[in-house]
Amino acid sequence: VQLVESGGGLVQPGSSLRLACAVSGGPVTAITWFRQAPRSRREGISCIRVNDDRTNYADSVKGRFTTSRDGAKNTMYLQMNSLNLEDTADYFCAATAHMFASACPLEESAYYYWGQGTQVTVSS
């Protein structure tokens, strides 16, 4: 399975940005966005379950970020609104073929397919 992120860039505080994660090469059951800021640990921020599009969000992005999926394009999106300086990070998408009975988790250990990441910089 291959994952390719796109859509990162440099934006001002308060702006919006949409990231995309294109998935190919095999079936997956859940896709998650992680981010890693400089000198920080990787943080799971949102995920979507493929069979029913059920989503899960970290408190740090809840209400500002929205995850969606286009099944026809095998692409997952992360719409990021009201960006602030603390959102500056490398953003990665990750996927798994494991079935989850409840909401998809935001823990790094649950995912074993990873993209290379895309950089988001929020700066005035």
Which class best fits the helix and strand makeup? mainly beta
SSE topology string: EEEEEEEEEEE
Could you give a short account of the major beta sheet?
7 strands, mixed
Give the radius of gyration.
Answer: 13 Å
Count all strands and give the number: 11
Sum up the overall morphology in one term.
globular
Please count the helical segments.
0
Mean pLDDT score: 96
Q: Could you list the spans in which at least 5 consecutive residues all have pLDDT below 50? A: none
Strand % is: over 45%
Q: What's the N-to-C terminus distance? A: 37 Å
The helical percent reads under 10%
Question: How would you sum up this structure, described in words?
Answer:
The chain has 124 residues and is mostly beta strands. Helix content is 0%, strand content 48%. The chain contains no helices and 11 strands. The protein has strands spanning 2-6, 9-11, 17-24, 30-36, 43-49, 55-57, 65-70, 75-80, 89-96, 113-114, 118-122. Strands 2, 4, 5, 6, 9, 10 and 11 form a 7-stranded mixed beta sheet that branches. Strands 1-3-8-7 form a 4-stranded antiparallel beta sheet, with no helix packed on it. The chain is globular, with a radius of gyration of 13 Å. The N and C termini lie far apart (37 Å).
